[in-house]
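For reproducibility, we list the full input for the guanosine-5'-triphosphate complex.
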Amino acid sequence: MPPDAEPDAPLVTAMRARELGRKSVVVGDRVGLVGDTSGAAGALARIVRIAERSSVLRRTADDDDTTAEGRLERVVVANADQLVIVSALADPPPRTGFIDRCLVAAYDAGIEPLLCLTKADLAGPEAVLGYYAELELPYVLIRPEADLDALRDLLAGRISVMVGHSGVGKSTLVNRLVPDAARAVGTVSAIGRGRHTSTSAVALRLPRLPGDPTHGENAPAGWIVDTPGVRSFGLAHVSADSLLHGFPDLVEGTVDCPANCPHTPDETDCGLDAWVAAGKADARRLASYRRLLASRSGEGDAREPDQRNPGDPLAGS
Ligand SMILES: Nc1nc2c(ncn2[C@@H]2O[C@H](COP(=O)(O)OP(=O)(O)OP(=O)(O)O)[C@@H](O)[C@H]2O)c(=O)[nH]1
Ligand SMILES: [Mg+2]
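The corresponding predicted structure, in tokenized form, follows.
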């Protein structure tokens, strides 16, 4: 459905036509339909064309890197213009390593990031926000009892996709934003045992707020895509050079690096160490960047985040 489709446009059920070959249709795709597009009960249309995508959010599914299937690159969503990185402030605890990976993916896809910190009723945001102090990263805090006006403003008129670990409250949030969404909501006790409440990505049209003075009567209300929780956001498809762009606070620290500097800890002339020593960026950000570099080159540490960074509970991915 086009982003500007009328709110009462019929919902059409369609299947992928054979002439598309191996091209797969993903959530967010704009498609050409033939056949019965009436939306009547039992009507089935065919998808014969996929429009050029304005953005493609990918992740390498390296949850399981022991199989070829596990290393596959997957398209999460097409045509999104905002990546809503959902992280709970507690239960499950925030993981800046994961948020950093999402920021890299957003930069790589040309999608603007928004940090959405849920469960603000359970813990404060200071530690997470302190870690990102040098970035101009927009954020919103979500409490169950407070209104969602700030978030609604940031979502208005855009196609936003939510990503985050299982149990952080993505579906809970979608149900509040889109009251008739009826997304299943789970319990956090299942985390880490391979159970995810949401099992597929779904795009939902945001309701236009009655009498909303800020966006005009004919402004599109926007779309929100709820996705299943992921354990990790694999970045094997992102080049080592592009990784750095997910760390805008470090970029300037590389201007004095030797040509083709790999920015690894063993590169004694890498400018990033001096940059951090001079207080221009947080040492934890450099450590996170270098962890990502190492995981890309196959030297990744496969231990659980809690064991890997005993001194820094935030750092896991
Ligand atoms: N205290 C508190 N609990 C919340 C909040 N938001 C969500 N929860 C609870 O967190 C649990 C998980 O919420 P879900 O919305 O299912 O999480 P999800 O991110 O969609 O999880 P997956 O679908 O598995 O990826 C539920 O028990 C919610 O009631 C919040 O702001 N505060
Ligand atoms: Mg869910």
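DSSP finds nine helices and eleven strands in the chain. Residues 118-119, 121-122, 142-144, 164, 166-172, 185-188, 196-198, 228-229 surround guanosine-5'-triphosphate (ligand 1) (CB under 6 Å). Both points were considered when choosing residues for closer inspection.
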